[in-house]
Each structure stands twice: as C-alpha cells, then as structure tokens.
Amino acid sequence: MPPDPITPGQESVWDYPRPAIAEPNTHHLQIIHKGVEIANTRAGYRTLETSHPPTYYFPPEDVTWTHLSGNLHRSLCEWKGQASYLDATIDGDCLQAAAWTYREPTDSFAMIRNHVAFYPEPFDQCLVDGETVTPQPGGFYGGWVTSHVAGPFKGIPGSRFW
Hints:
Largest sheet: 7 strands, antiparallel
Structural class: mainly beta
Radius of gyration: 15 Å
Mean pLDDT: 96
Shape: globular
Order of helices and strands: EEEEEEEEEEEEEEE
Number of helices: 0
Number of strands: 15
Strand order of the largest sheet: 2-5-6-10-9-8-7
Distance between the termini: 9 Å
Oligomer: single chain
C-alpha cells in the first residue's frame, strides 16, 4: 500500500524505523476521563515503528496511580519485551487493560521502564498538544493518530502482515 501524501508539519509513519525505537517526547500529553485527569506530561517517550502512529509512554510521576490497578493480562513485544497491563477505574467506570507498562524492558527500551502507555479508545479524551487523538485502527495496537502523522496505519483491514 502506498504511503499517504504528507502535508506541511506531518510525519509519515512509513518513514518510521523498523525495528522500533523510543525517543524523548516533546509534546504535551493528557488523558482525561469523566472529567478526571489521569495523566499529564511534557516528558516521557514515544515509540515509533514503521506503519504505526506513535505510542506515548508517561513517566510514572506524571500518572495518577490511584486510578490504576493491576490486570493479569500480559503480552510480548518482539522489540520491548513483556508488557503488564493496568485497569483504570474512574468514578465507578472500570476500563479493563486500558494501559500497560514494561517492568523489565529489553536493553534498547530501558528508558521506558515503569512508564505507562494508554490505549486512547476507552478514554473520553487523549490529547497531544490540545488535539484530540483518534485511536489507531484495529483495536490491538495503542498508537495515537493526530493531524501530525500520515498513514495509512497498521490495523486497517488487510494490514495484518505489513
């Protein structure tokens, strides 16, 4: 599938590397649900991988931990290692496996140890520099789509083996 055209100020996810990398985040990120701010940072990291919109990792000190609890679900990323999942409970609303963290990431992703990434889909608002995020298609991946990234994005029908 050919990459979408890039407009000024955009990055193409087709220019992102493979294997994946992590780099310092330079954007203001927020997670809000039912009027409660769950996370807010101008730090942390974003991970980039060919065909995926960025996934953002919040530093632990920029997350409101009283809203998060452990979930038994685990997954394995070929680049980052084993992820542990977290439920988010806000005002009686339990969002299961809505976030994840790497407690023992691979050496090349050591900088994201204990940082928290959030799926944007279950939350009322996930924001990058004030812009509301669209979840990466497909429901499996946790990328954040904004006007600053051009696709197409892995997760759309027919993209399984990209």
